[in-house]
Amino acid sequence: xxxxxxxxxxxxxxxxxxxxxxxxxxxxxxxxxxxxxxxxxxxxxxxxxxxxxxxxxxxxxxxxxxxxxxxxxxxxxxxxxxxxxxxxxxxxxxxxxxxxxxxxxxxxxxxxxxxxxxxxxxxxxxxxxxxxxxxxxxxxxxxxxxxxxxxxxxxxxxxxxxxxxxxxxxxxxxxxxxxxxxxxxxxxxxxxxxxxxxxxxxxxxxxxxxxxxxxxxxxxxxxxxxxxxxxxxxxxxxxxxxxxxxxxxxxxxxxxxxxxxxxxxxxxxxxxxxxxxxxxxxxxxxx
Length: 287
Prior knowledge:
Helix content is 70%, strand content 0%. By secondary structure, the protein is mainly alpha-helical. The protein has one domain. Helix 2 runs antiparallel to helix 7. The chain is globular, with a radius of gyration of 18 Å. The protein starts with 5 loop residues before the first helix and ends with a helix. The relative contact order is 0.13. The model has no long low-confidence stretch (mean pLDDT 93).
């Protein structure tokens, strides 16, 4: 088979964290409605499919390549990876990644007609980074700049370009919304790399968690989880976005107190749910 079974592919796309692609779009859409911009639901659908396809492709390329370069071994304690577990061959996983890259590219071609050169630039860079996150001579995932790329693509670009496509103009205070949405996404990646810190160091990765060390990684995680609320409090909107704070507190508590790092796998879902509540609350605030 050219592609793995659907049940295997579902594991490979890492559904627990796919909300990272959709939450910036939800907030951008809500802000557009707040600013009396008539919605174009076809554009909204293309943005959603394109964004989630890029994240899925990134995850699948990472799944295959981390097995091939020896990062994912039998001692790995993170969530199941389909290539490492023998559920799919590296080729099947990579073919699946290219399928989603193709879907994203078709969505991008349509959106270029709406947004012009800025969509061409941001979309092209997003497709390139989906591949180079794990592949090429200098994979992003093996260095200390993964969180920076997450902030840029899952925060700043995802929100601001989505709003541009939906409303036809750049949003006011776009950097505040972008950073506030991007911070929890950065926390999820940092949590993932903190959990794998010892194994990653053995295979030569130089992630931000490795540079920071265990204690500093915990502190920076807490910063990423709570900084959005401090930023959003500067905006004249109702406080529904505070709905994410209880789960942010829980995720941070677990980050500092868990002794067996395999228990941090559940914290990925808690951190993602915190971001979801933050963004749903922010969307309600805007509406």
